[in-house]
Amino acid sequence: MTVIGMGIPTVRRGAVPSLDGRPEVPYLLDKFGRVAKDLRVSITEKCSLRCTYCMPEEGLPAIPQDQLLTSSEIVRLVGIAVHRLGVTEIRFTGGEPLMRRDLEEMIAGCTRAVPGIPLSMTTNAVGLEHRAAGLAEAGLSRVNVSLDSVDRAEFAQLTRRDRLPSVLRGIRAARAAGMSPLKVNAVLMPQTLAGAVDLLAWCLAEECELRFIEEMPLDADQEWARNNMVTAAQLLDVLGTRFDLAEVGRDDPSSPAEEWLVDGGPATVGIIASVTRSFCSDCDRTRLTADGTIRSCLFSDHEVDLRSALRLGASDEEIAQLWRGAMWNKWAGHGINADGFVPPERSMGAIGG
User: Fold this and answer.
1) Using CA atoms, how far apart are residues 155 and 219, in angstroms rounded to an integer?
2) Three-state DSSP string of 72-132
3) What are 217-240's pLDDT values in tens digits?
4) pTM
5) Structural domain of residue 184, as residue ranges?
6) Residue 140 within a domain
7) Is 327 within a domain?
8) What is the pLDDT of residues 85-119, one digit of tens each?
9) In this structure, is residue 239 part of a structural domain?
10) At 249, which CATH number?
């Protein structure tokens, strides 16, 4: 049985995933021919902000410390992912990764374990100004900053925290530390749509790559409604009032962002239309939750427990086989637009982006 608490399953029993029909290949193949090469590692459920489309006002329930993956366990799993499963990109997520005091140690350990593999982080950048140099020295090569508005009042309303100045200082500190390209991710919300032009103008001036994301039904309060979401088409109409946009599409089919040249280039703006222009058929991601499970899709509540295997003495190859099984059984897509769609039990803050 699974007991749910604010979007985080607090009890779970995961069966060993079936490998029936799977070819004998080392990489993370699924039944639809997709290969996962991009690993998202959630390292905490804690966050310094309370964005309305992600977190409840009081935050998510704490993961008990003994259920949270340790820094050394994360380093080991990242090594297995790269050396045995063919993963070529690692991104650390949360909650908010900066809430982990051992983040620099974790990054340095992964740098040693998988030299040459790019290590990036999705962050809200609150407090990043104090740690950017140390993280870059540890081996972090790039950051994606979640920033939905450069209007201080709008930012405070959306995040329930008045921390915009800290975020902007963090972005500049990351750039000064050599983390590039520096990307900004903005979730499309009705209350910030009018300010999208100002956000794009700010990102152009600050040499940040901006990507807008359609809001998905992953909020902990489960208030998402299709008729209240801002679509990519609506955003393009608003941006078109100030900028000349020319569609260039996707450089990589597995990239979720469709790109538009801004005023003839070279700068671009990206739009991740997860709801209205699904890209599930090209998905190349695999996700490790902060409490040690593999999640093959943001919207699938089926998880495979690697933490227990780690702590019971499983070999690297035994863990790799569990991981292969988890991804082999990945479903075709999220089904947001299908009749009877049910949002996942875990919210975005509990899964990791």
Assistant:
1) 17
2) HHHHHHHHHHHHHHCCCEEEEECCCHHHCCCHHHHHHHHHHHCCCCCEEEEECCCCHHHCH
3) 655 556 656 667 888 899 999 999
4) 0.89
5) 36-333+342-351
6) yes
7) yes
8) 999 999 999 999 999 999 999 999 999 999 999 99
9) yes
10) 3.20.20.70
